[in-house]
Design goal:
The protein is of the alpha/beta class. The protein has 12 helices and 19 strands.
Length: 432
């Protein structure tokens, strides 16, 4: 697979005068060099650098790429064309699916896994998305349960509307058919212009959601933060090839106030302080994975689309607190019958409903989670049983149901705390 790197940025916010933005150094090495090393590591050796501002600085440094073990072709734009306009210059060169980097992002991503995801679908494009801690002022991407991108929401967002906390990470795999949607010699952006056009044209765009490290270093603060993360080794450790630990969470009674059979969006309310505690996890290297039983679907109280809207509200409210979850898994089943409007197809004894650990194992497979040293925080003994079955350290909270199903299970939690904040502090201070 060929790689195109859009490397025409000026770095105005960084106050750059002598170098273009992609040549800013992280740990004494240009960002562009870090990207080329990443590409080479995953077998992408045929690289096209789309340059513009101060292009000679880039060509003088990288040459033909042989010094770095790759082959580099340069295409210099005479005037700024935007991200999509720059890619249009490759129309007569790229005949197969190709990858795109933006030259101002520092990242360490398992590109092999991304390519495998792309191969699994018929689409005109696959884009990487992830949550961030400021969705309220970010351009957001709407993604359904099948990983289809359904909408793009540019900032500023409409008031009183709930959104998924997913942003475009600026890393794509594109079909050459995308060139048909990009006009010649026009200044166009993928996120604002081309991707929305693809959706309007009924093309399929897939979203690959990953918690790996991908950050734009376009401001002095971000540049300083990414350099510290690189020097500490954090950027490399978050690559999906490396097993990560996670904090698994029940939803009701842990993140939001417990409401019996919660199925109306207006009844969803975060518990005070959970956003602050989640921010602490987000700043650590633990993944945050919600595992929740949602029998309201099997009972016929709401649809999966209704549940999706409730979770959009959750992500929006957490985003206001600058917090996020990395993923959420829910079980829609319920084995007991007798509810008006219930769904017969979901009345089964499944492997994903807690106290069984099916969803924990699914999340561990999806995210390469090391269950040893990971945790489960819940308010029921069903949560504790699921966590123990998966080999997790378990924490029972006295919020929500506060373990009122204890008589059903012959298990004990490793710890009991009165609040989510106390549990998080315990974990981040080293646990047991």
């Amino acid at each position: 697979m060929k790689l195109a790197i859009i490397a025409g940025g000026k770095g105005t916010r960084l106050g750059l005068k002598d170098i273009p933005k992609p040549m800013v150094k992280i740990a004494n090495k240009p960002i562009l060099e870090h990207q080329i090393e990443l590409a080479k590591r995953y077998g992408l050796h045929d690289i096209y650098l789309l340059t513009g501002h101060m292009s000679d600085v880039i060509t003088d440094y990288f040459g033909d790429g042989s010094r770095f073990g790759v082959h580099i072709t340069y295409i210099e734009e005479d005037s700024p064309l935007g991200t999509a306009g720059a890619i249009k210059t490759l129309e007569d060169t790229f005949n197969d699916r190709f990858m795109v980097f933006y030259g101002d992002t520092i990242m360490d991503v398992d590109l092999r896994a991304f390519i495998e995801f792309d191969h699994a679908y018929e689409s005109i494009a696959s884009i990487i998305v992830h949550p961030n801690d400021h969705p309220y002022d970010s351009d957001l991407v709407e993604v359904n349960r099948n990983n289809d991108v359904t909408a793009f929401h540019p900032k500023p967002h409409q008031a009183n509307i709930y959104y998924r906390n997913l942003v475009n990470a600026a890393l794509y795999i594109l079909s050459p058919r995308v060139f048909d949607y990009i006009p010649q010699d026009a200044f166009l952006d993928f996120g604002k212009d081309i991707f929305p056009l693809l959706l309007q044209s009924k093309e399929t765009v897939k979203a690959y959601n990953t918690p790996e490290y991908i950050k734009d270093m376009g401001t002095p603060d971000r540049l300083d933060k990414t350099e510290k993360d690189f020097i500490s080794g954090k950027i490399g450790r978050l690559n999906k090839e490396n097993r990560r630990k996670a904090i698994f969470l029940d939803r009701d009674g842990i993140l939001n106030k417990d409401v019996d059979n919660l199925h109306k969006i207006e009844d969803f309310e975060l518990i005070h302080g959970v956003g602050h505690a989640l921010r602490k996890i987000n700043s650590s290297e633990y993944l945050t994975i919600v595992i929740t039983n949602q029998p309201v679907i099997a009972k016929g109280f709401c649809t999966e689309e209704d549940l999706y809207e409730i979770h959009k509200k959750m992500e929006t409210l957490l985003g206001i607190d600058r917090a996020y979850i990395d993923d959420l898994y829910y079980c829609p089943h319920h084995p007991e019958k007798g509810f008006v409007g219930e769904r017969e197809d979901l009345k089964i004894d499944c492997d994903c409903r807690k106290p069984k650990a099916g969803l924990i194992y699914k999340a561990a497979e999806d995210h390469n989670i090391d269950l040893t040293g990971s945790y489960f925080i819940g308010d029921r003994y069903a949560d504790i049983q699921a966590g123990i079955s998966a080999g997790l350290e378990t924490i029972l909270l006295t919020t929500g149901h506060a373990g009122d199903d204890k008589d059903k299970y012959i298990v004990e939690p490793d710890n009991i705390f009165d609040s989510f904040t106390e549990a998080v502090d315990y974990i981040l201070m080293g646990g047991k």
